[in-house]
Amino acid sequence: MKILFDLFPVLLFFAVFKWGESHQDSAQQWVTALFASVSAAGAITAEVAPVMLATGVAVLASCLQILYLLVRRQKVEPALWVSFIIILVFGGATIYFHSETFIKWKPTVLYWTYGIGLLAGQWLFKKNLIRSAMESQIQLPDPVWNALLYSWVGFSVVMGIANILVAQHFSTSAWANFKLISVIGIMPAFLIAQSFYLSKYIKDEQHEPH
C-alpha cells in the first residue's frame, strides 16, 4: 500500500496524459478552463494540453499526499517533501510557461537531488543516510552500508541521465512511457538486485550464535 501511495502522482500523471493524447481537444478545453488565468504564454495548444493537464493532476495529487499525512498526524518523510517541492516548482513552470521541458526535467532533478543528498550526508556530515533509514531492520558490516549508499548514488546519476536522453531524443509520449517504466520496472529491479546482494548477510546474521 505504501508503494502505491508513493507512486500515486506518477500513475495519475501517466493515466491522464494518455487520456489527453487520445482526446486532445477535450484536454485543451480542460486546460484552458483551469489554467488560462495563471499562464503567461498565450493560447494553450492542443499539442501541449495533455502534458499540462497531467502535470496539474500530478501537482494536485502530491498536495493531497502531504495533506493526508499531516491531517492524520503521520510523519512526512524528507524524500516526500523533496519530491513535493520539486513537482511544485517544475510542474508550476510547465503550466505557467506552457512548456513540457520543465516537467521532463523534474525526474532528473529529483534523482540528482537524492544523489547529492546522499553524498553530502556521507562526505560533509559523516552520516550514511541509507544506514540511518534501514539499520533498525537489518545489521550489516560498514563496507556493505557504504556499498549500498554508493549504489544508490550511482543509480540516481544513471537514471537522471537516462531521463534527459529520452526527453531530448524521443517524443513526449515515449518519455511518459519511460517515466512509468522507470518506477514500476527499473526501480523494482534495482531493489530486487539489492535484495539478492544483501541476502547472504541476512543469512549470516541469522546463523550467528547468540
From TrEMBL:
Q: Does the keyword Transmembrane helix apply?
A: yes
Write the gene name: yciB
* Keyword Chloroplast set for record: no
Q: Name one Pfam family in it.
A: IspA
Transmembrane stretches, start-end: 48-71, 78-97, 109-126, 147-166, 178-198
**What name is this protein filed under?**
Inner membrane-spanning protein YciB
Role description: Plays a role in cell envelope biogenesis, maintenance of cell envelope integrity and membrane homeostasis.
User: Which keywords, in A-to-Z order, does the entry hold?
Assistant: Cell inner membrane, Cell membrane, Membrane, Transmembrane, Transmembrane helix
Topologically, how does it sit relative to the membrane? Answer: Multi-pass membrane protein
Per the record, the similarity remark reads: Belongs to the YciB family.
The record's section on InterPro entries has: YciB
Tell me where on the tree of life, at the top rank, the source sits: Bacteria
Where found, per UniProt?
Answer: Cell inner membrane
